[in-house]
Design a protein that fits this description.
Elements lengths: L1 H15 L6 E8 L7 H10 L4 E9 L2 E9 L5 H10 L4 E7 L1
Antiparallel strand pairs: 1-3, 1-4, 2-3
């Protein structure tokens, strides 16, 4: 009985599309991150985007690398980069992984 129930749950998740939902990670190159206030602004901008699960930043010499986990059914990597660019930090998508 447990095997049957487990199989039904897995099949229903696959049919509904949730098991295939697009959990993605994007790496963004962010420019002009040159002061103590900049990184928190970038992180807050990303974190407030719909579908973003986590955002982390590593700063180095006026630039930063942002790693963002997000649901691609709710937001695109291009929209993430555009939001940070619109906040005043020119951004490009570096790498996308599943």
């Amino acid at each position: 009985m447990n095997t049957l129930l487990r199989t039904i749950l897995i099949v229903s998740a696959l049919v509904s599309g949730r098991a295939v939902a697009g959990e993605r990670t994007a790496t963004l190159d962010v420019e002009n991150v040159s002061c103590a206030v900049c990184a928190p602004i970038v992180k807050r901008t990303l974190s407030r985007m719909p579908g973003v699960r986590q955002a982390a930043l590593v700063e180095q010499d006026g630039t930063a690398t942002a790693t963002v986990s997000f649901d691609d059914e709710q937001v695109t990597q291009e929209a993430l980069a555009a939001a940070v660019t619109n906040a005043g930090f020119p951004t490009q998508v570096q790498v996308t992984q599943r």
